[in-house]
Amino acid sequence: MRLQVKNISKKFKAKSNYVGALDQVSLDVKSGEFICLLGPSGCGKSTLLNLIAGLEAPDQGEIYSRGKIGLMFQEAALFPWLKVKDNVGFGLKMQKVHRPEIAEQVDKYLSMMHLSAFAEAYPHELSGGMKQRAALARTLILNPDLLLMDEPFAALDAQTRERLYGDLQKIWQETKKTIIFVTHNVREAVCLGDRVEVFTARPGKIKKEFKINLSRPRNLNDVAVAQISNEIMQELKEEIDKVAAEMADYKKHQND
Amino acid sequence: MTKVDLKRKGRKLIIKIIFLLFLLLIWWLLYKIHFWPAWLFPSPRQVFKTLIKGFANHTFIWGILISMRRLFIGFGFALLVGSFVGFLLAKVKIINETVGFLVLGLQTLPSICWLPLALLWFGLNEKAIIFVVIMGSIMSMTIAMESAVKNIPPLFIRAGKMLGVQGWQLFCHVIFPAILPSFITGIKQGWSFAWRSLMSGEMLFITLGLGQLLMIGRQLNDMSQVMAVMLVIIMIGIIFDKLIFGVMENSVRRKWGLK
Ligand SMILES: Nc1ncnc2c1ncn2[C@@H]1O[C@H](COP(=O)(O)OP(=O)(O)O)[C@@H](O)[C@H]1O
Ligand SMILES: [Mg+2]
Q: B138 or B259: which carries more pLDDT confidence?
């Protein structure tokens, strides 16, 4: 699915003033592309995904997309009152799909995510990585054309995360979905993306685009991945420094 | 439940039973040494006999049924209306600023203070006592529902929307299950307010029910009746609080992993 984001701006009302979250962001995503958005925290990455998903409206600019959109949050956001299988089947149930059909689909996606043994478990019985896989199954089962992922692995330990990079690349290659993946981890972005868009500090703008022409599947510790990550890190560091300076400034004001 | 859990539960139960037997023993000893005159302090046996007699001649059963009927009507109404108003308080700002303010004010009024007003409005009848039960629990139900709805993590709502919930589905499949744990706790608390209001109401004006059985005992100088009815009231409290609501609360909390 093709996605066009044109000159999007978004402000939020803070206590006394407005905080600019996004400033004139444009992005063109081709069908089947894997895009990573990389930027310091607070630069408006989540806001951009929410706008694309239609959970919020932009102040300016336009977004063109056709087809179904799925969004995965940083926290798994599974419903604690439903068993894993019912969480995964939730979207189909809302569409009033027949029960046997739902059960069949749920089985398929649970086994794809290696969660079949946990179908009857409640979310609190799962580990962090399993929760994210269940959340991914819950999103994928609706067969979205565009999959938005907002730092989905940020809260996981390194080992679990690396395994999920592999899983995600495999799923992407098999299903040919368009994916926009948000992260503040440079290596993660390089490991996963066809393109990496580096954002400036708030208000977020796209500062620079990097095309990653490495063969897949990629591994976090590949030399090439490390090299490109270094290059991107230079770019990103300026922005992180800006955020740090702003924070120091804020603290100083508070102490005055 | 695992074997270890069962063992632990069994141990707790045995300790409780031993403690109760110990209390009975002290009671009996105090009776035996005539610490207080027998008509003020009957033996466990007398109270037990009165209890059996009360059930055998159906006076206690009628008392329980009459009180329960009032409780179910009054609390049922408070539950429905209170939850609805509480939901509106959480969702509509202007209602919160007006009705919310009123509810908070009225909540400070002990429920029995509504009795004189109820007697003047409705007369000495069933309506007055049910009114007191309603007023005793409706504010607490309203406030419980309001805070339950306000505390739903916004993430659940957003997740629901991304999974395609529409219209009523949002309420039935996301909002309602999301508030269930705090809502059950709210019901439990509301019920205990209703129960207390009912007992104070029944004791203050003469009409059948458990509260009145208690007052009859006092008028007849029949201490064993007073104590027997108190025991019945305690048992009903335990059945609702610990068994019915407690079990509901625990099963939901276990599902969520809150325990
Ligand atoms: N609903 C909101 N209300 C007010 N400010 C918000 C809201 N959402 C985000 N912001 C602000 O907008 C900026 C960008 O937020 P976000 O998109 O979450 O950043 P990121 O995901 O890149 O960390 C932050 O400064 C944040 O405080
Ligand atoms: Mg974010």
A: B138
Interface membership of B248 toward A (CB under 8 Å): no
Pocket of ligand 1 (CB under 6 A): A 12, 19, 21, 39, 41-47, 202
Q: How does pLDDT run across A46-77, given as a tens digit for each residue?
A: 999 999 999 999 999 999 988 899 999 988 89
CATH number of the domain at B209, please: 1.10.3720.10
Would residue B133 count as lying in a domain? yes
Sign of the alpha-carbon torsion through A211, A213, A214, A217: positive
Task: Report residue B210 CA to chain centroid gap.
Answer: 15
Domain-terminating residue out of A143, A159, A179: A143
ipTM of the complex: 0.87
Q: Which residue of B157, B162, B170, B179 to mutate against A (max A Cβ within 10 Å)?
A: B162
* Residue A69: its H or E element: strand A69-72
Domain that holds residue B110: 43-255
Task: Report residues near ion ligand 2: CB below 5 Å.
Answer: A 46
Are A28 and A5 spatial neighbours (Cβ–Cβ below 8 Å)? yes
Contact B180 A81 (CB under 8 A): yes
Q: Whose CA is nearest to atom 4 of ligand 1?
A: A12
Instruction: Enumerate residues 6+ apart whose C-beta is below 8 A from B148.
Output: B86, B90, B179, B182, B183, B186
In whole angstroms, what is the distance from residue A50 CA to residue B157 CA?
A: 13
Question: Is A144 an interface residue toward B (CB < 8 Å)?
Answer: no
pLDDT-based confidence at residue A256 (cuts at 50, 70, 90): low
pLDDT digits (tens, 9 = 90+) for B51-99: 999 999 999 999 999 999 999 999 999 999 999 999 999 999 999 899 9
Q: Would you say residue B59 lies in a domain?
A: yes
Residue A90, Cα to own-chain centre: how many angstroms?
21
Record the pTM: 0.85
